[in-house]
């Protein structure tokens, strides 16, 4: 991936605010790069390094599946894909308008604050969807793993385990640090999205109010 591609995907190449550009920087540097460089290697052998104090065939696999129904890294990757997808609305709308206005010899406005109509609504919709998806994935993480933590020992009594056995998770402290980092960056992205959404709604509302006020004065 190139920076230009990610900028186009996020819709911030020409038609975004400074907050939108910060969102892209956070996603690329603090989420995507951390995932590629560090997180994948930490969870790479999580199944092989998951050990139970019993050698009953099938017990270890069943316990691992019970406590880790979805891999942290796969869910993290899915989250990155899903929260980036709504920005395609802006990309498609910009491409449509540029193609349409080429034939009319017109130009798109240079900043989002000067744009009314479809492009603004598409951008606002993408912000709402991104915020909603971030919240959904945070709730999903919390529900799947019983909180944002990685225990050192888990007790399992699932069949075919003959009794309650102790299972040990490898590198729990390191994994928990990265899990907290994931939660923190997700919360930061939610704050950025809500800030940009509030800013655009406020600016658009003020613009409409000033237009009506000027008309009344005239």
UniProtKB/TrEMBL annotation:
Record key words, sorted: Cell junction, Cell membrane, Gap junction, Membrane, Transmembrane, Transmembrane helix
GO terms of biological process kind: cell-cell signaling
GO cellular component terms given for this protein: connexin complex
One MF annotation (Gene Ontology) recorded for this entry: gap junction channel activity
Main location: other
Domain Connexin N-terminal intervals: 41-74
UniProt xrefs under InterPro entries: Connexin, Connexin_CCC, Connexin_CS, Connexin_N, Connexin_N_sf
Location(s), subcellular: Cell junction, Gap junction; Cell membrane
Superkingdom assignment: Eukaryota
Zinc-finger keyword on record: no
Pfam families: Connexin
Topology in membrane: Multi-pass membrane protein
Residue intervals of the Connexin cysteine-rich domain: 133-200
Membrane-spanning segments: 20-38, 76-96, 117-142, 177-202
Family affiliation: Belongs to the connexin family.
Function: One gap junction consists of a cluster of closely packed pairs of transmembrane channels, the connexons, through which materials of low MW diffuse from one cell to a neighboring cell.
Subunit-level organization: A connexon is composed of a hexamer of connexins.
UniProt-recorded name of the protein: Gap junction protein
Organism for this UniProt entry: Sula dactylatra
Gene: Gjb7
